[in-house]
Amino acid sequence: MIGNIRRLGLVLATSLALAAAGPAVAQEYPAKTITMIVPFAAGGSSDVIARLVGEEMGRALGQRIVMENMGGAGGATALSRAARAEPDGYTIVIGNSGTNAASYTIYPDLKYTQADFAPVGLVAKTSPMIALKLDFPAKTLAEFVSYAKANPGKISLGHAGVGSSNYLICRNFIKAAGVDVALVSYRGAGPALNDLMGGQIDGVCDAATSLSGAVQAEKVRALAVATPTRLESLPNVPTAAEAGLPAFQAQGWNAIFVPKNTPEPVIARLNAALRTALASPTLQDRFKALSSVVPSQEEMTPAFVARMVPAEIEKYRLLLQDK
User: Fold this and answer.
1) pTM, to two decimals
2) CA dist., res. 156 & res. 243, Å (int)
3) Which residues are CB-neighbours of 33 under 8 A, at least 6 positions away?
4) Contact, 218 vs 72, CB < 8 A?
5) Which of 284, 215, 223 is nearest to 248 (CA)?
6) Which of 37, 136, 137, 183 is at a distance of 20 to 30 A from 81, taking alpha carbons?
7) Confidence band (pLDDT; 50, 70, 90) for 323?
8) E strand or H helix that includes residue 119
9) Mean pLDDT in residue range 53-63
10) Least confident of 7-21, 101-115, 144-158
C-alpha cells in the first residue's frame, strides 16, 4: 500500500513538472541566435521572402535570425539538414510546394519524410510566371507556345532545381501548353535569372516575387502570370487566361517548418512572432511590391499547414506521375 502511494506521488510529481515545463520553455526561448535554412541560393523567391520575414520575426523575438542558404537537389539537401537538426527551435526552415510536397514524388530516396517536420505557419502566397529574354522572337504567350510547338526541344527554360517550386511552374506550364522544351536546372532562382538576363537561356519559370524587379526594369519580358487576376505591381502582364492559356493556373506558397519533437511552446512562440512579422506595415508594403500575398489569419496557423501539405503532396503526385 505504501509502495503504491509512493508510486502515485511520483507520477503526480512528474506530471506537474511536465505541465510547468511548457511555460518555462516559452519564457526562456529564444536565448540565442536562430538559424533559418533557405533551401536555395540567394536571390530567389524563397530567399527574398525568408529575409524579409526573418528580419521582422527577429525583432518580435528579441533575437537575430540568420539565413543559411543551402542549394542542391531542388531543396532536398537543405531539408535533410533541417530534419536532422536539434528540435529546440534554433534551426527553422522555409519550405515551399517543391521542398515539402513534390519532392516526395520526385525523390523516392529522400533522407526525410513529411513526419520529420512540424509546421509553424504559412508565410506567403506567390504568383507563378513565365519570363523570356528580351530578344526572344516570340513577344506574347500565344506566340511563344506556337514557336515552341514548331521547334520542339529547342527552347530552354531555367528553374531552381528539379523538385523546386519553380520546376513545378515549368511542369504546370508544359502540361497546360502541350509543348516540348528543355528544362535547365540551377541551384536557385537567382542564378537562373542571371543567366536569363545574360542571354544564356531563353526563359525562366519563377514567381513574380523574384522576377518583379527585372520585369519592371525591362531586363526580361514577362509573358503571363498564372493567377486569376493581374498583379497590381505588374499591371501590364496579362493573366494566362487573358493570354490564351487558361489551363495554366498555379499557386505558390512558402511556410516555416521546424524539426519534429520541437516543443509546442516554442512552436507557439515562433508562430506568434510570424504573425507579428506579417502584420508589419513595412513587410506588407514590401510583399505588395514583390507581388507576394500575406496569408489569412487562419492560413498562418500550424493546423492549416498540417492539413495543406498532404493535399499538396497528392496534387503534385498526380501532376508528376506522367513525368
Assistant:
1) 0.87
2) 21
3) 63, 64, 65, 66, 90
4) no
5) 223
6) 183
7) low
8) strand 117-126
9) 98
10) 7-21
